[in-house]
Tissue inhibitor of metalloproteinases 3 (Engystomops pustulosus), 73 residues
Amino acid sequence: MSDGPFGTMRYTIKQMKMYRGFKKMPHVQYIYTESSESLCGVKLEVNKYQYLITGECQRQAAPGKGSDFYHPL
């Protein structure tokens, strides 16, 4: 996890399975989210859980808004 520009957080992820969206984004390496939950940011517990993550790709960036779905497995 590292701080990105404009108060965004960048999580480095290990993609285990992708169910849809291969043509738009064949491999996801990072998830970007706002640093504040009031701006729909999400805080993930690093190295504690595996997450099921859903959302839309925007400008070749993976989802990271609170309105997307994050569920620990």
Summary: The domain at 2-72 is CATH 2.40.50.120 (OB fold (Dihydrolipoamide Acetyltransferase, E2P)). The longest strand covers residues 8-12. The chain has one domain: 2-72.
